[in-house]
Amino acid sequence: MILILTAGFGDGHNTAARNVAQALERLVPDEEMRVEDIFDAAMPVFSPAMKTGYQMLITRAPWLWAWIYRNTQDLQFESGAVDSLLPLRNRLHEILREQKPSAIVTTYPLYPKLVEQLREAGVDVPPVYTVVTDSISIHPIWALAPSKLYFAADEASKAALAAHGVAADEIIPSGFPVSLDFLKEASVPVEASPVRRIIYLPSTSVRHVAQTLEALRPLLAAGVELTLPVGKHKARLYQTYTQFMDSLPEARIHILGWTDQIPHLLQTHDLVICKAGGAILHESLAARCPAIIDYIVPGQEEGNAELLTSHDCGVVSKSPKQTGELAERLLANGAVEAKRMKENARVLCEPGAALKIAEAVLKDSRAPKL
Q: What is each CA distance from 264 to 39, 175, 220, 232, in whole angstroms?
């Protein structure tokens, strides 16, 4: 059994964990893969509150989250009068004792520290492999405790991780582990369409989403098609998008709830409007779909945005009004600018990153011990 550890603080950790598990299952279908959120298992009452608090911080008080991010650079989580990691460590110990995994893959930075503490306490622990879900602006907590191998998004992210003390030969610039569906989509030719298409993944406040839709009104009135996968935001955004659609009845607007078609949608749209989450930006790269980034969580998401903008694969918007202006610019003259960004994304496009990570984990964990 291979244990994949994640934590639901943002979507990137869970997305990476699911996709690595999917890749491992493809390579070794007879072996069990277990994806576990230790926070949920160890603290079933407090974990949801912690995750809700995190979401509130990054959306309603980003200045406070930026302060926390900056001022936790030197955290060591050493046991003291209050051992904050004890519930998590105990739960992980139980899993190791009961399941006896041959390897641990973690997509959340705190878990290698738990493994190290268990090892120091005399527990027999398997090798640990860390998938870093942030790009370029990488918090030192990712290097808090050792792993056999680290997987980083690109060479710049590898350098950032090495700057925190990780040996360069232990870091593989694999790309972010997106769904294997991106490999399938990449092999299917996309028919050229005379209709320009935008996919908008709303994650900001209701007011910001309403203003963004209004900024897109001229494009939609001119025939540009909009796909709006609202997913978990459906209830809170219902009034916003229904009122907007009522005000523009001839517009081509498609509302989607939860969907597993994001790879296909990104592949078939001219651009995506989204926040700077690690998962969605790397998915946009895997599909070579230019991104207009409309929100950046201070700290960990700054590097994600930099990854795209430094390679001219996306742009950052400072306001809903600017989002509309950027969309108009990218789609002008037959979407010539969006097409240029699409070609630029080839340098970073890694639709098979999950398989690359899975292959490296299997090779290293099954190598004869000297």
A: 33, 19, 21, 19
